[in-house]
Amino acid sequence: MTTKTFDMIIIGAGPGGYVAAIRGAQLGLDVAIVERENLGGICLNWGCIPTKALLRSAEVFHLMGRAKEFGLSAGKIDFDLAAVVKRSRGVAGQLSAGVKHLLKKNKVTVIMGSARLSAPGKVAISGDSGTQELTAKSIVIATGARARELPGLEADGDLVWSYRHALNPPHMPKKLLVIGSGAIGIEFASFFNTLGADTTVVEVMDRVLPVEDAEISKFARKQFEKQGMKIREKSTVKKLDRGKGKVIAHIEKDGKTETHEFDTVISAVGIIGNVEDLGLEEVGVKTDRTHIVVDEHCRTGIDGIYAIGDIAGAPWLAHKASHEGVAVAERIAGLNPHPVRPESIAGCTYCYPQVASVGFSEARAKELGFEVRVGRFPFIGNGKAIALGEAEGLVKTVFDAKTGALLGAHMVGAEVTELIQGYVIGRTLETTEAELISTVFPHPTLSEMMHESVLDAYGRVIHM
Ligand SMILES: Cc1cc2nc3c(=O)[nH]c(=O)nc-3n(C[C@H](O)[C@H](O)[C@H](O)COP(=O)(O)OP(=O)(O)OC[C@H]3O[C@@H](n4cnc5c(N)ncnc54)[C@H](O)[C@@H]3O)c2cc1C
Fold first, then answer.
1. CB of 50 shorter than 6 A to ligand 1
2. Of the candidates 420, 389, 393, 421, the residue with the CA atom closest to the CA atom of residue 220
3. 325-369: per-residue pLDDT in tens?
């Protein structure tokens, strides 16, 4: 067995891992990264990017269907699912190749294979080219997560799909059941529903997109229903009877069970961390259920071993992973980076309409003891939204009534996943209503609604 020594070894080349590698290399560290499947991880290959490519096709399809509204005409509007998927896979492939290029450019050693901690400071790798051992003072675990499977609801790739199957679907669903209305479930529901699948979403919690502000969930639900989606909240899929080309779902609500037939089911009931076969117990790294326990600097408590991204717990978002990647590489290189603060990380869902938020919901802020001032502004009051033909949406802001601190912002409507970053910067800079009110927002833009929502919280709204 060959042994090589590096300053930092990273296990997993998702957004957490590859960004840590590049930042480490920028700071002069000799870095190796080990990946068992695809450079770019879930995000680029099976998550953020290919889903957004699919959703873009659905968005264009939807707009083509509305051609008349814009004074245009289109012939027969149709789609070719295989071509839509091919485009999505192509985008994923392009970005994964881009990561390969960036790692090479930064002189990061890339090793394809499965890694395992064999002892503190030692990583054993098995791959096509045999077994090797690497040593380093610092090891970063960035092994990410995979779809959670519930007993009886396991994906089979034919009738019941995980997100991986849904990204490369064997057929176009006619009657689709989506179990779980978190970001992943609702994005697939939105995609297939827009393309014409008769779509039902079952959510165990009392509302869709349950991590969002209750008002935003309610608004989004109404929009989904207008588009023909059936939403069943406070409901549980107890059992799936799989037959030839069909699945009978047993759906329970308030103690009563109904059965409904579908031809396809997407199970989107959460994710679990890839903690297995990493040698964590042997080196003493603690786990909590399927996540590695870390402090705010991604330290595991074992000298020289760090964990970042999905494997290190919520929020399970690519930008959280990559930001932790930067922070951890800087710490290893001897700098003193700031910790990543989950409450200032935006969550974005790219369904139609889009949903985005940062900070505390109104209910959470109240639970935490804040006296709140709340502002709201509807898309119908914004010139750009009307010009775009996207007049359905809402921008809600939550302030600390005592200090004016921006506690949270919650948006539903066109392009809100792009807009939210304005509020994220505000929160990072610990902004108050005063700075937001005195900021000049360009006209005509959707961003003016962000201003108006703040003005509304302080009784100064103009266009409503
Ligand atoms: C369908 C879907 C859509 C999503 N959309 C979004 C979105 O729009 N925005 C967003 O922010 N997030 C989104 N996410 C979540 C996002 O993909 C994750 O938060 C992100 O990928 C986490 O990055 P990571 O670096 O922690 O791990 P990952 O991206 O999961 O990468 C981990 C890598 O480690 C490798 N690995 C695991 N074990 C080993 C081992 N023993 N040896 C070697 N390699 C190993 C894996 O092969 C994998 O490539 C989505 C997820 C899914 C599933």
1. no
2. 393
3. 999 999 999 999 999 888 899 999 999 999 999 999 999 999 999
